[in-house]
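Section 5.1 Outputs to date
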Amino acid sequence: MKTIEELCKKIEIPEEVAAQVAAFDACFDYKPIEPSMEKIFLRNAWDEGCREIKAYLGEDREGLKILACMLRCALKTWKNYEQRGISEQIFVDTMKCFSRFMNEHKEGYGNYAFDREWWTPRQIAGEIMRIGELEYEMYSETGGGQMKLHIPSDADLTRDSLLESLDRARGFFREKYPAYGSAKVCCESWLLSPTLKKLLPASSRILGFQELFEIETVGIAQNSEFITWVFKRPDIPLKDLPENTSLQREMKKFLLSGGQLEDAVGTLKQGL
């Protein structure tokens, strides 16, 4: 992959967005922000890099300029993948976060826009990779390797799919990043909230996901995160939240009654 056009096609960026991004890319001089783009590859500098790039780009209502810059960085990420012998499939699945985020915005707001530049440096820097249904983030803030597990909104949460992803990930990291091959796998998410047991049927795939973890801590969740995940946008008054799915209906009743959902931190059970 050598061009943004090729990358957009591979990761299924919506055609109308891909055309605008390609047009911007063809005439934009990246040289003045190359140092800032390099910062996107460093955990301790990527926030600063994003701020500098956005300041240079100026008005960017739909985020397509910063999207082009991120995709330009992703072409370098692919070279880094190639050097490590990581498959194109893992690269494409990982970078489909860009199209997923745009499609989520379209579903919630009615138009395509990119507003996750604060998150995607993790994928650009090669610290998050999607393997099967789940995303795995290499994380070593404490000085020892540990994995953070993330759940994409389009993930198939059937037990077989989850176990396949976990098994593939263990093999992948043992081969490519040995320090993480047997690392502790943690997940912090509202999807692990104990309260969901009161809202969902026992057959729920979300509850099945919870069963993979030993819950360690529980705290009040940030409403915007789970509301965006369930209802596609965080700024809708509670009384107007959609009721298109059973989860939406139960969650809406729960919130209207004054309920609060928790975030929980869990560790993947031994043997998984």
